[in-house]
Each structure stands twice: as structure tokens, then as C-alpha cells.
Amino acid sequence: MLPCFLAVFCLSATVFIVTAAAALPPVTLVHHGVRCWHDVAYGERGDLLDEGEGFTGKHGGWSSSDQPWKWCRHRSGQFLDVFASERGVATNATVVLYLHGGSWSQCYDKDAPPFDLFGPLIAGGAVVGTANYILQSDVTVNRSTPARKEATFAEMLRDIDAAVAQMGTFARALGVAEPRLVIMGESAGGHLALLYAYDQDNPEKLGLGLKHAPRVAKVVDIVGPTAFAEEDFINSMTLNLIFFKIRNSIFDRLMRRLVGLPDDAPEDEVLPLLSKWSPVDLVCPQSIPTVLAYGKTKKRVDSDGLVLVSQFTLLERKLAEAGVPCAARMFFPANHVEVRGKGAKWITEQTLPGVANAGTVETGGSNGQK
What we know:
Largest sheet: 10 strands, mixed
Radius of gyration: 19 Å
CATH superfamily: Alpha/Beta hydrolase fold, catalytic domain
Distance between the termini: 29 Å
Strand order of the largest sheet: 1-2-5-7-6-8-9-10-11-12
Number of strands: 12
Structural class: alpha/beta
Strand content: 15-25%
CATH architecture: 3-Layer(aba) Sandwich
Order of helices and strands: HEEEEEEHEHEHEHHHHEHEHHE
Number of domains: 1
Shape: globular
CATH topology: Rossmann fold
């Protein structure tokens, strides 16, 4: 019998094809009807840092008591965790690469994998991978998170490019003929997912020479910052929460380092680079279809407690002006960490094929969904 998170969210009568998958590494375990491969290496850097302590929390039926490995164990190492149904996968399965949040400087080391979202995706037939990537230094209050001081947005995107290639290889080994890749991210990971997706058809802007192989078919952004240089974003008190009250300005150490500047760089050097690394400024008519899931709270109707609603509306407007297909939803009430769970069903429907563009909808009610 399927576990509840698979049974409830099964979206179609897909006929799954179990493959021999001779090229696959051994399955780490089968848990709740899901095959799990842990610490699948990608890229050439490997494991850069010492192991963390792993998670201690609980999410979506997965907990520290029944999970046999440590989540985000290799904080900045080049490793994937990959999940697929025990029943096998279809040859036309959607492949999802999820990027965690954490202000570009830490991992969700206190949470289990986000199975409130992964569960529905896997039940719908997707192969889901989640990637660690290079992180910034410990400029946040979380001093236990080690990372290289010089890690930048550019380095993070190069890691993501390598993770995308490995996901394509892994999916083919599972029997997926031509992987339909969706890149998905939450918070800081949403920002990176957008940058990576929009660089695919506008590569001159960042000039990183990323391979984008396999190509991304769709990008899903969950509460990610989209426009760093906007005045409202810069001046908002919300920034004190986003960057853990490092100091009082967005132009402090974290953002300088992320855009590749020294800690003492003057502010007039920072602003142009904030625009460069803002997804809203990478949108072009060729950009891929986009899914936006954001929230706002009863206390702060202009934000989810961390990210301003204006970050959502600015990107949605830019996509509309460029003629890029966009499914957008504002969940209310929902704070920054609640959008993923409250929006899991809708996000799954938008991620998997065969669902029409829902357009912009604001949802309400006790659970944030109609």
C-alpha cells in the first residue's frame, strides 16, 4: 500500500516502467515507497568541507527518528540526493532539481528533506533531486555553518550547472529517454533557480559560459528574491531579517561577497552588480515558462515576513511584458516558510506536464488554498 503522501497526491494513471539501471549506484534505502540515493557526487570539487551535524527536525512524515542519514551533511560539497518511486519511472518522466534556501550562506541542516513538496512530485511520476552547492561564509548569526569566504553567485551557478548535468545522466540511467528538466528553488534557492533558468536563453548578461545540458524546460520559484536593486527592497526593514541582522544595509559583507567584491567596496560599485545578479533583469522573450509561488501574512500584507510582495509583482510584470508564460500564485495567509507546504499541490500541478497555465491567483482561507 502506498504511503499517504503518495496516495493522496497521485495525479495520473502513468504506467511506470521499472528499469534495470545497471549504471546506477546502489540504492541507499527504500523508505515510504520511495527509492533514495544519498550523496551522489557531481562536479570535480567533491566534498569541500567537514560534515555537519545533519537535521534534527521533522517534515512531511520524514523525521530524524526514521531517516537513516544526515540531511545536508556535506554543506557545500558537490552532492545530490535523488528520490524516485519504488515502482519505477516512466520513460517520459519529469526530472526536478530542487535548490535549498538559507541566504546563500547555509543549508537547511535542521530540517528533513521537504517531503511536503517532494511527496506529491514523486507520486506524480517525477524523479526529484536536491543539490548542495557552494555557500557563502558565516557572515550570518549561524556561526556553525562553514563555507568559503570567496563563494559568489557565479560559483553557485557553476555548481548548479554541474548538478543539472548529473541529474540528466542519472535520469537516463533510470530509464528516462529525454529528461524534461524542471529547476525549482526556495528562497535563496529560488533566486538561483531563476538566474540559472534565464541565463539559458540570455547567456551574454552573466557571461559564465554555462552548459545547460540538459536544457531546463520550466523554472519554479518559491519565495525567491528577484530584484535586488529595487529601492523598496534595499530600504525595507525586511532585509534585516533576510540577512540575519548582519548590520543595517544590504550593501554589507554578504552581498558584496556574493557579487564578487571585497568587503570594503563602495556602494556605487555594488548597485550595478546587484542589478546584474537580479533575475528580473535577465528576462527576455525567449525565457522559459515560469511558476511563481509567494505569500503574504496578516501582519505584513506587503511581505511574507522576509521577501516583499513587490519582488513577486516585479518579476510577474516583466515576464508578462516579455510574453513569457507564467503561472503565479500568492498564498494568504502564508509566511516565508509556509508557502512551500501550503502550495505543494498547486506547485506540483504546475510542475508536471499536462496542466494549463493557471494565471495569477490569490488564494485565501485557513490553508492558503482554494
